[in-house]
Amino acid sequence: MKVTFSALLMRNAFLSCFFYCFAGTLAAAEAPLAGVEKRPVSIYCDGVRMAADLFSPKGLKPDQKLPALVLCNGTGGTKAKVGNRTAPAFARAGFVVLSFDYRGWGESDSKLITLEAQPRPDANGNVKVEARAVRWQMNYADQTEDIRAAISFLSGEKTVDAKQIGLWGSSYGGGLVTWVAGNDARVRFAIAQVSGMSARGPIAEKAAQELSTKQARGESEPVPFETGKLGGKLATYEMMRANPARSVGFNSIEAAAKIKVPMLLVDAEKDELVDIRQHGGKVAGILKANGVPVEYRVIPDITHYGVYKEKFAEVTAIEVEWLRTALKSSGN
Prior knowledge:
CATH topology of the largest domain: Rossmann fold
Number of helices: 7
Order of helices and strands: EEEHEEEEHEHEHEHEHEH
Number of domains: 2
Number of strands: 12
Helix content: 25-40%
CATH class of the largest domain: Alpha Beta
Strand order of the largest sheet: 1-2-4-3-8-9-11-12
Distance between the termini: 14 Å
CATH architecture of the largest domain: 3-Layer(aba) Sandwich
Structural class: alpha/beta
Shape: globular
């Protein structure tokens, strides 16, 4: 069944991709929810509550089970912006879609760091301390666990076929879902668009290991607040902090070699943030060489942000059609 681009066009054009989440001059808008039900839910990862929204086609029967998709944000992305815009198109195509905020991002609760010596817990295990919230961290170890918690949540949803759960990730999130797809057997299909695959060279890996040693020994900030600011073209995200120490050994390119499920990779031909040949293109090549079903699409004449702006409807249509084809080929 072919999907026309016009069926996926949004009534109002707006810039609500994750790279603009702190730009106050840009207004985010929700995609129309015609034919889609949306309800807020809570996911727990290591005891911390993550805020999420669950989208599904209207009129589901109690015993009906659908394939499901977890939306995984990129740098600074939130469910309020990325999810509200993207999820309805997938839900109308017959998927249950979970959009969520990583721990410490958006509307989700934060991990806490105590600012004083911890007193002995009372009989109920409780303590009263002053603490600082850990917010807006780019932390591969945490965020891959957040994604796995989202998969676990969907696995218990009555209207979800737990054997047909997939991942969708963009930019930073594209690298995360590639890693999870290679390391979590519950993932049955994956989409990664304009992905940063986070494959560091030996010099950067050594620096990350040295930072990890300093953090462990209390010789630097245990969690980056003053340090860790993003540089270059990502410096506009003033609230974000990168913590390379939490990504020691994390390599999406290596994880790609373990992927056995169908995958779609979408890149922007003129991406100014990553060399697509060494990121999405390289992963596509690995999957193809391993005989894994893979489709690699390069959208011509656009930069990184084009998949959220002028080519949003086209890219979404490509992804919806690929999902339908992938599920059909698997017999569902």
